[in-house]
């Protein structure tokens, strides 16, 4: 019987990925909200930073084990729990899934993180409009490349007709894109795949607006 606790934040796309993976594998978990803005950012409090010195969410606790990094957490779930494998075990598809997921989670997401935005405000004196342009620029650059790659990789989902880690990373990134006003009509394949994924029960349950700590 799993004893899983997820420290996250309703709007965190990295935590959103892990929620989707847990739901796809039908694993129950306890959710502990870490408010990234309130109290100067609860991720910086000792109670949290003692668990993850990077001061970023998510952290998954499984019994004695504490893990950070959403992609590693999802690998851990793939390797230790039943349910659909989000990264195929072998073959070319394994590396396609890993590389497309990393295109999103490593090349696009971190440059638009809260702490990057805070640095741009405080140290570079960027105003809200400049920060918005920054966010849109990096998402659009990443999505233009991804759109080209999905032209050959996609079926119903990002890679063929099975849900994979790429889909788990894409939906939260599109959530961010829409939040920051990226014109998604420039990315018809991404839009087509996301439309299908968004009504899947595991994705619906993981959506930011459906989290107990959702706070608009
Ligand atoms: N590479 C990490 C990224 C984690 C991350 O960037 N988390 C963000 C939320 S999506 C965060 O905690 N930000 C807090 C901050 O920037 O202070 C992962 O995939 O888990």
TrEMBL record:
InterPro entries documented for this protein: Glutathione-S-Trfase_C-like (IPR010987), Glutathione-S-Trfase_C_sf (IPR036282), Glutathione_S-Trfase (IPR040079), Glutathione_S-Trfase_N (IPR004045), GST_C (IPR004046), GST_Zeta (IPR005955), GST_Zeta_C (IPR034330), GST_Zeta_N (IPR034333)
Annotated GST C-terminal domain residues: 90-216
GO BP annotations, alphabetical order: glutathione metabolic process; L-phenylalanine catabolic process
Gene Ontology MF terms: glutathione transferase activity; maleylacetoacetate isomerase activity
CDD domains given in the database record: GST_C_Zeta (cd03191), GST_N_Zeta (cd03042)
Bilayer-crossing regions: none
Enzyme class, UniProt record, top EC level: isomerase
Cited Pfam families: GST_C, GST_N_3
GO cellular component: cytoplasm
Stretches assigned to the GST N-terminal domain: 2-85
Keywords, ordered alphabetically: Isomerase
E.C. code: 5.2.1.2
PROSITE patterns recorded: GST_CTER (PS50405), GST_NTER (PS50404)
Keyword Isomerase among record annotations: yes
Family per similarity comment: Belongs to the GST superfamily. Zeta family.
Protein name, UniProt field: Maleylacetoacetate isomerase
Species for this entry: Vibrio paucivorans
Gene, per the UniProt record: maiA
């Amino acid at each position: 019987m799993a004893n899983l606790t997820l420290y996250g934040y309703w709007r965190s796309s990295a935590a959103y990925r892990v929620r989707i993976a847990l739901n796809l594998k039908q694993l129950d978990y306890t959710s502990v909200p870490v408010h990234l803005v309130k109290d100067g950012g609860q991720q910086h409090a000792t109670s949290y930073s003692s668990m993850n010195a990077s001061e970023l969410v998510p952290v998954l606790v499984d019994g004695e084990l504490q893990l950070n990094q959403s992609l590693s957490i999802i690998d851990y779930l793939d390797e230790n729990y039943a349910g659909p494998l989000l990264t195929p075990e072998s073959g070319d598809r394994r590396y396609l899934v890993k590389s497309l997921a990393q295109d999103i989670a490593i090349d696009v997401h971190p440059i638009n993180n809260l702490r990057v935005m805070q640095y741009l405000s405080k140290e570079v004196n960027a105003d809200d409009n400049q920060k918005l342009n920054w966010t849109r620029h990096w998402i659009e650059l990443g999505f233009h490349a991804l759109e080209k790659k999905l032209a050959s990789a996609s079926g119903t989902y990002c890679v063929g007709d099975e849900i994979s880690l790429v889909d788990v990373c894409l939906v939260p990134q599109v959530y961010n894109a829409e939040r920051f006003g990226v014109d998604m009509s420039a990315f018809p394949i991404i839009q087509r795949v996301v439309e299908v994924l968004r009504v899947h029960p595991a994705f619906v349950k993981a959506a930011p607006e459906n989290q107990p700590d959702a706070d608009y």
